[in-house]
Write a structure and sequence with these properties.
Order of helices and strands: EHHEEEEEEEEHEHEEEEHEEEH
Strand content: 25-35%
Number of helices: 6
CATH class of the largest domain: Alpha Beta
Helix content: 10-25%
CATH architecture of the largest domain: 2-Layer Sandwich
Distance between the termini: 19 Å
Structural class: alpha+beta
Number of domains: 3
CATH superfamily of the largest domain: Pseudouridine synthase I, catalytic domain, N-terminal subdomain
Number of strands: 17
Largest sheet: 9 strands, mixed
């Protein structure tokens, strides 16, 4: 037997955290009984209804997408803009793990496995998120050290990170900087550079943990291998 919220997440309905919220809100019914407390365990043979929908355990799917610029990292968009989900050819109800800004490109993972998503996003797992930023201006050694030691955003200090100048163009007063973070705060990379007086012209996420863009052009995607999925589950 396993906890109800874990079963819901593994069925691909939502993340475990969201499942816990649904249970507390009394929106989960097991064999005709409303469940509103955590701790209930199920075998998987029960009739589980969430918000009036009968839960069916789906086959898990995992994708790595090279997100193009101008695509929304969401399942849907009220402004009818194209989303990352629309780029994946599947009939499963997948969703993106984390977010990339509208104008940010690069690695984004999508799945219908809530547990897998939770492992990747959990801060305790310290999964590398590697970005390449084109900056308006040439970064100095002092600014690099400020970023490495953690700048303050909205009164909260960022964790220490790795920063490396890859290339500088003094003629056009721009540079390319690699930055590696573990957090996932809103617009974090752009705001970190802004904190030291630099604006980001372009931003690309090159790697998340073991996942890179190797072999993928902008807008292309591939399925994850069973070995790759197992590596992430080993982090639990």
């Amino acid at each position: 037997m396993e906890r109800l919220q874990k079963f819901i997440a593994e069925a691909g309905y939502c993340s475990r955290r969201k499942a816990e919220e649904l249970i507390k809100q009394g929106k989960v019914i097991v064999n005709g009984k409303v469940i509103n407390e955590l701790g209930v365990k199920v075998t998987g043979k029960e009739k589980i209804i969430i918000n009036g929908i009968l839960l069916k355990k789906e086959t898990k799917e995992y994708y790595l997408l090279n997100k193009p610029r101008g695509i929304i990292t969401s399942v849907s968009d009220d402004k009818n803009r194209k989303t990352v989900v629309e780029l994946i050819n599947t009939n499963k109800r997948i969703y993106p793990i984390g977010r990339l800004d509208y104008d940010t490109t690069g690695v984004i993972l999508l799945t219908n496995d809530g547990e897998f998503a939770n492992i990747l996003m959990h801060p305790n797992n310290n999964i590398d998120k590697v970005y390449l930023a084109k900056l308006d201006g040439v970064i100095t050694g002092k600014e690099i050290n400020q970023l490495k030691n953690g700048v303050v955003i909205d009164g909260v200090k960022c964790e220490k990170c790795r920063v490396k100048l890859r290339k500088k163009d003094t003629k056009n007063n721009t540079c390319m900087v690699e930055i590696v973070i573990h957090e996932g705060r809103n617009h974090q990379v752009k705001r970190m550079f802004q904190a030291v007086g630099l604006n980001v012209l372009k931003l690309k996420r090159e790697r998340v943990g073991i996942f890179t863009l190797d072999g993928l052009k902008s807008g292309e995607y591939r399925k994850l291998t069973p070995k790759e999925v197992a590596v992430i589950y080993s982090l639990r």
